[in-house]
Amino acid sequence: MLLKVGSKGDDVKKLQEKLGLTADGSFGPNTEKKVKEWQAANGLTADGLVGDGTWAKMFGTATPSTPSTPAAPTATSAGKIDLSKLKGHVPDAVINQIPSIVEKFNCNTPLRLAHFLAQCGHESGNFKAVSENLNYSAKGLLGTFGKYFNATTAAQYERKPEMIASRVYGGRMGNGDEASKEGWKFRGRGYIQLTGKSNYTKFTQFIGEDCIANPDLVATKYPLASAAFFFDSNKLWSICDKGATDADVTAVTKRVNGGTIGLADRIKHFKEFYSLLK
User: Residue 8: which of 32, 25, 20 has the closest Cα?
Assistant: First the structure.
């Protein structure tokens, strides 16, 4: 589940009653403010999003009594997106995960789904990579992580993935320092590489399963869900909704990649998936 600004329904009313607000069933800025205050007071990340983790701590149950209305500009149910057309183009294991993604993350139009799958497909090497490859040579370390290595340290760290991750991700994204090895524990996993303890914590609170204690769940059970969480948290759906041009794919790519690396492949994937789904 996910309740956020724009959500409506009985579960929003129940939430508002719990927070001492007027229960009008519409999740607005004031409700978001109260949710953040409650999360902060109860040791949760104060992001204003009510996922399974926040709901469970608030009400003692991980599942709301009734479905909420998603905050989507166009309501297209999972049943109206013909996923059978993706067979042979996307692995069956990925197709089987899509219905829950459509429901939980508002990825509910052919346009949104095509953009989402195109980015996931490129980032994961056609849905094959679910864990970050940090087996760098000394030359690779200097080229990719030059900020963290010089010629001497690169030679010491080369081909040692755990040491590399602990160094380059240590002391940021909510991780402890290099000695804590949290950079390795919370390295990139999933089809769009969920990275860092802070992001794993937010995803845990949403999904309702402890990915802090067992971070490999992101790779084995939630590779697509963690990618959809990234899209939803970073408000990428509104960019997806703008259209199906190369410029639109470029705009989504910049938010996912931080640049336009692999743009031609992403555009190719998008055109393939959108032609099948629309």
Answer: 25
pTM beyond 0.85, yes or no: no
The upper half-sphere exposure of residue 7, i.e. CA atoms within 13 Å in the direction of its Cβ, equals 28
Contact 152, 178 (CB under 8 A): no
Cβ distance 97 to 241 under 8 Å?
no
C-alpha to C-alpha distance for 194 and 211, rounded to whole angstroms: 11
The DSSP string of 26-89 is B--HHHHHHHHHHHHHTTS---S-EEHHHHHHHHS-SS-SSPPBP--SS---GGGS-GGGGBTT
Instruction: Give the domains, in start order, of the chain with CATH numbers.
Output: 2-59 (1.10.101.10), 79-129+201-277 (no CATH), 138-187 (no CATH)
- Do 72 and 263 form a contact (C-beta atoms < 8 A)? no
* Cα gap 237→172, rounded to integer Å: 27
Can you tell me the distance from the alpha carbon of 139 to that of 255, in angstroms, rounded to the nearest whole number?
28
Tens digit of pLDDT for each residue in 245-257? Answer: 999 999 999 999 9
59 pLDDT more than 50: yes
Sort residue 9 into left (φ over 0), alpha (ψ -120 to 50) or beta. Answer: left
Tokens of 243: 């259209």
Pick the closest to residue 183 from 194, 199, 167 (CA basis). Answer: 167
